[in-house]
Amino acid sequence: MSFQTAKYLRKATGRAKSDVANKLVSMFLHEVSRKITAKVGLSVADPKYVHAVESEFGGHCCYCGRSLESDRAAVEHPDGMNRFRAGLHIPGNVVVSCKKCNNEKRRDDQLHKLTLATTGWESFLSHDGTKCDANCKTCAYWSSIWPDEMKGENLKAARQKILQFRARYKESIILNHKAHNSLRQELDKIYRDCQLFATNRIKVAVEAFS
Known about the structure:
Elements: H1 5-40, H2 47-57, E1 73-76, E2 95-98, H3 99-104, H4 106-109, H5 120-124, H6 137-145, H7 148-166, H8 170-178, H9 180-209
Antiparallel strand pairs: 1-2
Helix pairs in contact: 1-9
């Protein structure tokens, strides 16, 4: 039997504390996002911004360009909203992708240090099969989307399209980038503190219960 049940169950159990900490990370990033959108005078829910996303991407995934369906679409943050990428829910950093690209991009977004690019979304679009080892799952993903002879040019075109869109919201993107290092430090602290609190508080509660 190839499926490792014990390994899978251990991983699921160990993920619980991280899920709680990551939720607090997300809440913090959303609060910071509200401050920036107030400063630039535009939110991602504003009809003007929604129209801009629709006009630029035309109901297609921002990465692979495939047509979106309601059960395949995902709200996408090119600069991921997590403790590694410290992206925000702000104009220029909120678009729509297919769920497959959204899921695949997480491999790059969850890396402590990127090697292919300086941002998670650009790293995701850099897996053209020439920079990674033969077992790279993201390179294999892009090969499943496009023939190898088209892959490099299509990845470059997707990158250029997103850069072009983000350039329209330079103020909010610059504010996010300027705050990146301090956000990373604060996010790491929130994440560690939350996990420590959860571990200790649960331990006390379990001991009282038993």
